[in-house]
Amino acid sequence: MRSNLRNLRSNVKLSAIYLISNKSVSEDTRKAFLEEIRPTGIRCLATLAIGIPRRDSPNGHSLLRNISRRHSQSIPRRDSPPAFVASQHSCNEIANVSYFYKKLSVSQIKDAVRELLIFLHFDLTKNLKYDRLTRRIMKDGIQANFNCIDIGCHKGEMLNYMLKLAPQGKHFAFEPIPSLFNQLSAKYKNKAAIFPYALSNSSGETTFQWVKNAPAYSGIKRRRYDIDNPEIEEITVEKKLLDDVIPTTTPIHFVKIDVEGAEFGVLKGAKNLLSTHKPTILFECGKGASDFYDTNPQELHSFLSNEIGLNVFTLQDFISNNKPLSEHDFENSFNNNTDYYFIASKRK
User: SS3 for 206?
Assistant: First the structure.
């Protein structure tokens, strides 16, 4: 089992880097790859992505059979590449690839697998689907000179994408967990303005629930946690209004808000900035988190529509150019948890 896992670590890393980084991947190569990882391989990739261990990890060699020689030249090498047979697939794109970095952390493996599944459009969980749709919306909507805000920056995944899509823009990010803030500050020095604040509609010090074994669940208030035995440490952080941090003289084009239920407070504290510039806003809102902050979906919809001047869409409806959600539709989505990520936009 350990040998298979080591092979899988190496191969997932190589496969993910290749398929994600190389824009010239042909459809034949993609199909060949899919054939190679089904059925055992994709089951293992899926379980790794959502954190469920399996005993029947696939033989890692099968994952690499259809990797292109073009991209492998830029991959660091550790030892001689194994030889593979091209079979019936595009011979000019199927090549020998070297193994490297065989010892990856669980976190690195999960990140690589997650990227791979998103790239291949395998929506194995709702969160994977949201991640894929989010990236498409950002890619289609963010221009090179746009200014963006990432609220609840965590490890900087979305901030990375903002910087990639808008290299000429000014970018701001907020992350109150001290260790993550320090990492982000070092990583994005001279690239983005990083702040250690928990944004809300009031200022001052506040207690903050740091979920140490699942930091993405951290927030001002305790919420429902979809993990066993959450390890929570209550810390004190500074709370600010976004309107007090970024002046309305700075145009803002795109905002991402993921603060584990506190989104409505963030929106209220940014009323002047949002109503002035009417940026596209990606935000989370749903039971299990927002209800712990007494969020009323009707009031939130009314705030965005009437006070900010934006319409509310599900991610899929926004991409499909469907009509915005009515207040009743949004309330139903909230109460039934049919969707919990939304786009607010000035688009009709």
Answer: strand
- Max avg pLDDT among 32-41, 208-217, 269-278: 269-278
Residues 30-62 as b or e (16 or more Cβ within 10 Å = b): eebbeebbeeebbbbbbbbbeeeeeeebbebeb
pLDDT digits (tens, 9 = 90+) for 67-86: 333 333 333 333 333 333 33
Total length of the chain:
348
Helix (H) or strand (E) holding 314: strand 311-314
Q: What is the dihedral of CA 279, 205, 259, 256, to 10 degrees?
A: 20
C-alpha gyration radius of the chain: 22
Instruction: Determine the Cα angle at 239 with ends 235 and 242, to 5°.
Output: 145
Tokens 């952390």, residue?
Answer: 105
Closest CA to 73 of 1, 21, 36: 21
Do 5 and 102 contact (CB within 8 A), yes or no? no
Whole-angstrom CA distances from 58 to 33, 100, 194, 214, 266 are 14, 18, 41, 28, 45
Mention every residue, 6+ apart, whose C-beta is less than 8 A from residue 85.
Answer: 65
Strands 341-345 and 280-284: antiparallel
Tell me the average pLDDT across 39-45: 47
For 279-318, how does the pLDDT look when each residue is reduced to its tens digit (9 = 90+)? Answer: 999 999 999 999 999 999 999 999 999 999 999 999 999 9
How many CB atoms within 10 Å of residue 3?
A: 10
Contact 152, 132 (CB under 8 A): no
40-49 helix and 106-119 helix, angle to the nearest 10 degrees? 120
> In this predicted structure, what is the pLDDT of residue 148?
98
CB atoms within 10 A of CB 292: 17
Q: Cα–Cα distance between 275 and 53 in angstroms, integer?
A: 47
Helix (H) or strand (E) segment spanning residue 318? helix 315-319
Q: State the Cα–Cα distance between residues 201 and 182, nearest whole angstrom.
A: 25
CA 259 – CA 281 distance, rounded (Å): 13
